[in-house]
Amino acid sequence: MGGQRFWRYMLVWALLVATIWFGDRFVRGVLLTADEPRAVTPRGSLSETERSTISLFDATAPSVVYIFTDRAEAPGELGGRGTRGAGSGFIWDAAGHVVTNHHVVEGATRVAVRLDNGEAIPATVIGTAPNSDLAVLRLSETRAALRAIPIGSSTDLKVGQSVFAIGNPFGLTRSLSTGVISALERRLPTGGGREIVGVIQTDAAINPGNSGGPLLDSAGRLIGVNTAILSGSGSSAGIGFAVPVSTVNRIVPALIREGKVPTPGIGIRVAPEEIAAQLGVSGVVIAEVIPGSAADRAGLRGFGRAAQRVGDVITHAEGKPVSSLADLATELDRAGIGHSVTLTVLRDGRSFTVDVTVIDIS
């Protein structure tokens, strides 16, 4: 009797388990399966930050352009076989001037600019400023309405301030990245031993192809031109740099007018920095003084090979230590062409000061 009751319980339990198992499969496989398009869940309004960012992009993106370059080794159409490059830029004025980086168009045999409406237009490089990594292009005739980018200020920026970069990273057009100003007053080396001063550092994603594109403040105004990243892999590592708009707004009009910008100097050629290290001095060693230059008129000396004389060493400019050509160039920029700068010079173990007029060496 007890054995029959046991088997009866076991049968009920087995039926219960089977019912649950098959019922679960039925519910999941039939009743809960979404085999038709699901209903859209309504959302609330966009946040104020989202609306502001969308508005900024919509207003500014039409001013940003895609720049194609051709450095072909053999004759061919733009974009054909050969060395190709790409970068970003932005509309400077309604006359068709476009601003980008010098390194974007350096060595290019042909340049074309794609506008916001998709129109690709041949362009001419009318001026470059390698010491500031800036260049100006002029578009050939176009019927498109050109929207010049609004200009902001870089003199009152604050670390932590929101910034926005628009460009064409890796060929992906009209890409927006956001971030903050990470640091100010950085110095960025350029060709010729000089540096761009006052550079803006940002953590907004800047990748290859962003070069020459605008860095914007939260009002959609230009505050810098994206120019470089610090990365071993060549991709954004959260450290990007932009030429400040104060420099851009000074250099670009000069490039439009003259095709070049004045370069402050005194008329010397300097020895490699290793020479100063070998001599055990900190300063700029003069290798050669250009005849008739301001340095020549001031009595500065370069290497005297016949007399086996070491060149003068410039140790200070306006009382500030200079340990490289970049340091000296910065002080000459501050003094300005046509003005005098006081240099401290070391010659044969003796230190003296001399006033030299800053000239244009461009």
What does this molecule look like?
The structure is a single chain. With 362 residues, the protein is α+β, with helices and mostly antiparallel strands. It is 23% helix and 33% strand. The protein contains seven helices and 20 strands. It has helices at residues 2-31, 48-60, 102-105, 245-258, 273-279, 294-297, 325-335; strands spanning 64-70, 84-91, 97-100, 110-114, 120-129, 134-139, 162-167, 175-189, 195-202, 214-216, 222-229, 240-244, 264-265, 268-270, 284-289, 313-317, 320-321, 340-347, 350-357, 359-360. Strand 7 and strand 8 (175-189) form a beta hairpin. The longest helix has 30 residues, at 2-31. The protein is elongated and about 120 Å long.
Brief sketch in words of this structure:
The chain is an alpha+beta fold and 362 residues long. The chain has helices spanning 2-31, 48-60, 102-105, 245-258, 273-279, 294-297, 325-335, and strands at residues 64-70, 84-91, 97-100, 110-114, 120-129, 134-139, 162-167, 175-189, 195-202, 214-216, 222-229, 240-244, 264-265, 268-270, 284-289, 313-317, 320-321, 340-347, 350-357, 359-360. It has a six-stranded antiparallel barrel. The chain has a six-stranded antiparallel β-barrel with strand order 7-8-9-12-11-10.
